[in-house]
Design brief:
The chain is mainly alpha-helical and 186 residues long. Helices cover 79% and strands 0% of the residues.
Length: 186
């Protein structure tokens, strides 16, 4: 009888360990999946920007410093995508967002540009992409919150430490002004 009780307790503990470990693996995979979603949207954004810059450049040839800044910011954001942490990636993307605002400010000075269908299409695609990036960031941060909370709550925190699970970083923006979605005005 005592052996049965001991076996039941050992089995319950084994199931608890297995369940906890599998839950942590699932949460970690969700964080990775959410990060991949951000990556996809940022890649789309990076692909749209050269077309937008070229379209605006044709109308505003004397604004070369604006286009240079956008090109440099895009290159930095693409380079950060390869191996940067979420915080480093957010900083690079923030610089790109700021540079893009300059392009749209230049475009506002050229009413004939705002009437060009290609510019309208690119602007709409970029706006839609910015919305998708914002959603992907929220989704990622929600998954990071769930994962990190799980790592910090008892008794999971004991097992997480034993199995080498580490907290993930949020994808955060440093400056309050950078938290605003760029406004596209025609």
């Amino acid at each position: 009888m005592e052996i049965v009780v001991v076996l039941v307790i050992v089995a319950a503990l084994a199931l608890f360990f297995i369940g906890t470990y599998n839950r942590l693996i699932t949460l970690r995979q969700r964080v990775k999946e959410a990060w991949a979603d951000i990556d996809v949207q940022l890649k789309r954004r990076h692909d749209l920007i050269p077309n937008l810059v070229e379209t605006v450049k044709g109308y505003a040839t004397h604004e070369s410093t604006v286009f240079q800044k956008v090109t440099e910011a895009r290159a930095a954001a693409v380079a950060a995508g390869a191996s940067a942490s979420p915080a480093e990636r957010a900083q690079a993307e923030n610089m790109l967002t700021t540079a893009l605002r300059s392009v749209f400010a230049v475009a506002e000075n050229y009413p004939q540009l705002q009437a060009v269908q290609e510019f309208k299409d690119l602007s709409e695609n970029l706006t839609a992409t910015e919305d998708k990036i914002a959603f992907a960031r929220r989704f990622y941060n929600g998954n990071v919150r769930d994962y990190n909370t799980s790592l910090q709550t008892f008794p999971t925190n004991v097992f997480a430490g034993m199995f080498g699970f580490k907290p993930e970083q949020y994808f955060e923006l440093a400056d309050a002004a950078e938290r605003e979605t760029p406004q596209v005005k025609f």
